[in-house]
Amino acid sequence: MTDTPTIKRRLIAMVYETFLLLAVEMLAVALYLLITLNNHAPVFQYGLKVWLFVVTGAYFVWGWTNSGHTLAMKTWRMQVVTADHARLPLTTAIVRYLLAWGWFLPALLACAALGLKDKGQVGAAIALGVLGWSLTAFLDRDRRFLHDRLAGTRIVVLPKKRPAPAAAPAEAA
User: Fold this and answer.
1) How far is 53 from 98, CA to CA, in rounded Å?
2) How far apart are CA 21 and CA 42, in angstroms?
3) Given 57, 89, 123, 144, which residue has the most CB atoms within 10 angstroms?
4) Would the pTM count as exceeding 0.70?
């Protein structure tokens, strides 16, 4: 259980995670709109952003502290653990979530500072940010991404489950 998954495997799991998270956030938006009666006042628009930040954090933190993985990580047989291979405590999971915003936050801040609003420009900035953050794994001797190094966590490969032995056929009398 000590092997670090390849960078490619972790990035593919992140793509899968994006689709799962999209579904979670769609439900969160629907609930928010229902509660706020679809109010479009600026305070409610900012409230929606805060709500999505909290819901996303709850999704990841719950998965990491409960079982050590999200659904995408489970599918790709990966688990996030502390440096000594223990389950993540709540505070460590929260710190990891906040640090993981390094994948996107610098690009989003650059877009805001430069006044970029075009979807293509914002998408390109985020793609560059993701590329830059993923390259941090090549600077780490254990191939951990920067947020894992800073949070004191690591992702490990889970062993394949072995099929249960087949029951012996009943002998005819």
Assistant:
1) 10
2) 25
3) 144
4) yes
d(CA 84, CA 27): 36
- Name the β-bridge partners of 82: 153
If you search the block for the tokens 């928010």, which residue do you land on? 32
SS3 39: coil
Q: Which tokens sit at 45? A: 């628009």
- The stretches of 67-118 forming alpha helices (DSSP H) are 71-75, 90-100, 105-114
What is the DSSP-derived secondary structure letter of residue 161? P
Q: Cβ contacts of residue 61 below 8 Å, gap of 6+?
A: 90, 93, 94, 97
Chain-centre distance of CA 2, in angstroms? 20
On the CB side of 135, how many CA atoms lie within 13 Å of its CA?
6
> 137: Cβ–Cβ under 8 A, 6 or more apart, which residues?
7, 143, 144, 145, 146
Nearest CA to 52 out of 75, 30, 19 is that of: 30
Residue 125 amino acid letter: A
Q: How many residues does the chain have?
A: 173
